[in-house]
Design the sequence.
């Protein structure tokens, strides 16, 4: 599939009424530690607390009026469930969310707050797909994948476009890699809106499917994923993987200790609440500091939805 | 003592090279909950993580060259120790900090990072004053009080000036009340820079010395102060109390549960790291929501220096 700059500009324009233009922060101390010059694009301040709002809004906006009337459906226990619910609510569209019955009550409550209609099912992928299929048949709702959907990918890319509008001469943009929507959209944004800007992914060693996929040229999966970066356990898809293969320069893998240390640094020094997945990008920059020395870097802080009760175990 | 608008404008101009102009944030959800329209002035993003940087910088700037060469001394185990150290470092001035030997190692480390020279002593007020006196005699350093100092008061007022420059038609500005420097400076800023802006203080019920002082007309102290808002345990002073009596409209007292609840709301919904003292102002707004209904409010988020390891007990 071919993408172009005008297409991304249109998406940025389209989603603007439904999303925040999030702030870009800097930290003198983290610049000193890293030896580079970092602009943090703070999607933790995005509506519902994560970049996923962008892709969800764009996906719904690209449905026909008839499709919108029938609603949207997804299966997710994470940020995309909240994002699709809130984007749908903002657009007056019904949202059906399939969640595993084991999902924490706090996540279900968040989806309900945003008006999503929850269907619970056992937590296997097959059960979740079956439940989503059944809802599609009963309601005519359109299935929206959290990361492997062209409009979702383009929507996620708008965070990097906004960042490059503020700071056009970035040498690198670094994002965490989960299902691949954010990094694919960011890679397109870097290609079309950067001057000579490379896109680099960051991934937990404990869930390094994207790194292995880049090596093998095929979509690999994780047999286990014992990481605190719980948003990054998913695998790439056939729509975002070709973009990643073509436009992502490298993927850097980091340990759990490196993720925790980067997360603590951001909480303590920047005074912002971020989720563990968001810390993975800074962890990668600190790990490969020679590569980034003296460079201008953009880091996408992907989100801030974290259970404060679990903070202690996350940083210790 | 008389104060005027030109004097405060000059302070804002003077400290500008040594401080950040901190961002102002809004939260749609907190506006819905409170029924008012709130602008949060985020001094947690200030250098060293708290508004105290402003007063410390202004106090040192108002010393003569001879005084600056001999250095400054204070006794504090909190944010002012860090603020005076960093302000002194920025201005090439020696800083001597008297800290109780019981102070947490993390706080001592922060002072050292900013170049402050620590003298440890037993934790009684008399021991601290004796140690500070001795340093003054030995070095000729000037003692700077954390809150009861005219230049400190004027410096702290600059946060509210910046807020009113962005949002000139605020009906109220609400700040926490500890030693009285922030609220006195804010009250002056509201009087000189607001259109018809009242200044209101917020205080823990467990350390309500300022509320009692307003009632009695004398500076009262706390016999105990069992509050998580550990920055607010100190009492008012003879320089800030007259300003407070004249220009502060009211002081609202809140329970520990109300402080924790407001703190959690800000962490979870605004995704910013604040210290418990900072949550007291929002707690007051939520408690007296009838008073503030439909009004435009400024809240000074005083700082973000919190021990993450203690977060669990703070919010539970």
Sequence:
């Amino acid at each position: 599939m071919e993408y172009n700059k005008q297409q991304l500009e249109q998406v940025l324009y389209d989603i603007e009424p439904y999303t925040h233009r999030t702030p870009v922060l800097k930290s003198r101390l983290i610049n000193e530690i890293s030896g580079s010059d970092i602009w943090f694009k703070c999607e933790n301040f995005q509506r519902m607390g994560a970049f996923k709002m962008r892709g969800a809004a764009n996906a719904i906006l690209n449905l026909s009026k008839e499709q919108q009337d029938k609603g949207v459906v997804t299966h997710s226990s994470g940020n995309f469930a909240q994002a699709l619910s809130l984007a749908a609510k903002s657009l007056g569209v019904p949202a059906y969310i399939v969640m595993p019955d084991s999902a924490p009550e706090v996540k279900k409550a968040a989806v309900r707050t945003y008006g999503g209609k929850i269907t619970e099912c056992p937590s296997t992928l097959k059960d979740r797909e079956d439940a989503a299929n059944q809802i599609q048949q009963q309601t005519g709702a359109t299935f929206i994948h959290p990361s492997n959907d062209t409009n979702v990918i383009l929507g996620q890319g708008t965070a990097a476009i906004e960042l490059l509008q503020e700071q056009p001469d970035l040498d690198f943009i670094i994002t965490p890699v989960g299902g691949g929507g954010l990094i694919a959209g960011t890679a397109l944004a870097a290609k079309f809106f950067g001057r000579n800007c490379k896109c680099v992914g960051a991934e937990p060693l404990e869930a390094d499917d994207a790194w292995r996929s880049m090596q093998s040229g095929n979509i690999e999966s994780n047999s286990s994923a014992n990481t605190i970066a719980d948003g990054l356990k998913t695998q790439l898809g056939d729509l975002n993987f070709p973009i990643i293969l073509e436009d992502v320069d490298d993927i850097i893998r980091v340990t759990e200790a490196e993720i925790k240390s980067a997360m603590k640094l951001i909480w303590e020094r920047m005074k912002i609440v971020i989720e563990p997945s968001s810390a993975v990008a800074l962890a990668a920059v600190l790990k490969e500091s020679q590569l980034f020395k003296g460079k201008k870097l953009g880091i996408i802080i992907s989100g801030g939805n974290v259970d404060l009760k679990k903070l202690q175990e996350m940083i210790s």
